Amino acid sequence: MRNVVIVGSGCAGNTAALYTARANLQPLVISGHEPGGQLSLTTLVENFPGFPEGINGPDLVANIRQQAERFGAEYVHGSVIEADLSKRPFRLNVEGDWIEARALIIASGASARWLGLPSEQKLIGHGVSSCATCDGFFYRDKKIMVIGGGDSAMEEAIFLTRFGREVAVVHRRDEFRASKIMLERARRNLKIRWVTPAVVEEVLDVTKGYVTGARLRNVKTGETWEQEVDGFFVAIGHIPNTAVFKGQIELDGDGYIISKGGAKTSVTGVFHAGDVQDRVYRQAITAAGAGCMAALEAERFLEAEGH
Ligand code: NAP
Description:
By secondary structure, the chain is α/β, with parallel strands linked by helices. The chain has helices at 11-22, 57-70, 118-122, 132-135, 151-160, 180-188, 284-304, and strands at residues 2-7, 28-30, 44-45, 55-56, 74-76, 80-84, 90-94, 97-106, 110-112, 128-129, 143-147, 166-170, 192-195, 198-204, 213-218, 224-228, 231-234, 238-240, 270-272. The model has no long low-confidence stretch (mean pLDDT 96). The protein binds NADP nicotinamide-adenine-dinucleotide phosphate.
């Protein structure tokens, strides 16, 4: 039986681990299928306060984990494959082993939705990114491509025009899912070029080990062509990692946890932290802050329960 189990080992989970460990609660962290979370997929993080020269994403999460371990947090590899939150203690099946918890912090994050092309996957962190705020700065005066037709794609494309020489928005349809206001704002931006209806067939160039371009196909005419590009940003949405909790805590239509104030979920004793609930800010620093909030609430909850 554990006092606190934390699902997820990104910025939110590791920060929750640090705080609950320092409160002497000996938390157990289940590191999940993407240990380190989305930061483990980025390179230099320049906007996490306290690192004037920036810090590599994987180093940042590893440091927070080390800091949590110093105070007694334990980590187990693996993912939660089944959960029973209907009564306390909560029960979690971690790849065959059942774990019991008095309090649970869900910090399982949201994974960026990728196109799924092998070339895209190989070049993540080498020109392929899912986060303009994180990586836009590296493409000053370069050619940038943004994939997607929703608000995220518009927001990222507009943001990236601050850096890039030109930003090509590639979308699979001629109509856009983005809200009218965001689409109009993007359309007024003269640095943005529109490439529709088009899909990406391959990100180039895996043999070089970094992005040099993309092979595109017009879905109406079938025409294919190669376009030079330095930064390839995929903005086709995120998928919150909550499938295992479906039907047990309140989720919105897209699967994000619905907050009941602070870090509370619809189940007493279960708290949320980070991108699994946040579809707006999605930053390392806000996730870390949310991890802290969840830890403090879990601590108070356990204290009130007499543990
Ligand atoms: P979204 O609205 O679901 O849009 C995803 C876009 O990616 C769609 O245009 C979709 O194309 C495209 N797409 C999905 N899978 C694809 C694939 N495999 N290949 C190529 N294209 C693909 O996601 P989002 O833009 O991240 O927005 C999520 C939510 O957050 C929305 O409610 C949005 O309004 C909100 N948001 C708001 C703001 C803001 O107001 N500032 C900013 C960001 C996000 P189709 O259209 O053809 O399906």
